[in-house]
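Standup notes
- HV: blocked on the assembly model, inputs below
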Amino acid sequence: DGGITQSPKYLFRKEGQNVTLSCEQNLNHDAMYWYRQDPGQGLRLIYYSQIVNDFQKGDIAEGYSVSREKKESFPLTVTSAQKNPTAFYLCASSIGGRREGYTFGSGTRLTVV
Amino acid sequence: SQKIEQNSEALNIQEGKTATLTCNYTNYSPAYLQWYRQDPGRGPVFLLLIRENEKEKRKERLKVTFDTTLKQSLFHITASQPADSATYLCALQRGTGFQKLVFGTGTRLLVSP
């Protein structure tokens, strides 16, 4: 079955540590996205990529980095510069260039310990 | 700044009744509006997309309206069931070029037997 796989489901990070969240899709979608969800707030866009080897900052990119070396993969690194990284992170994809629903992964819950 | 408002209080209804959720927006002219369902600890699941030139769209027990004059969308679930209990998110998107999807905070629906 086609879909988006995020791993790990739970991640614990120590202060000052970088961590990388994985996102893989087998939907052949061109566009991929990373959102952050905090209680009482809507999903906020961190980074997005319309095509391989290209990505743009979203609304809250500070303290995060991404890469898009393969169409299927869009990993997100939460760096030590991110002051409040504890959140639920969601990866999504879409065909791109058309208005349609996004397909989301099941999320990664990151906690700073 | 643009704002998307969904009722932050949970909506409690009895099984069999129609649930109606509201999405209001300001300082925004979306061409497309989407509704998603999100269960606790999971990623959102796309339900329906409606375009600005469509007044209403239906899918099984779901109905969405889009009033660009009132800047409002209504999401209805008829003959609601306990399995419909979840958080429902609305999301807006402009029409030209590559436009990011902007999400509301969601409304939690609780359907009791």
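- HV (later): unblocked. Chain B has a mean pLDDT of 92. Residues 37 and 76 of chain B are 13 Å apart (CA to CA).
- Next: hand off to the docking folks.
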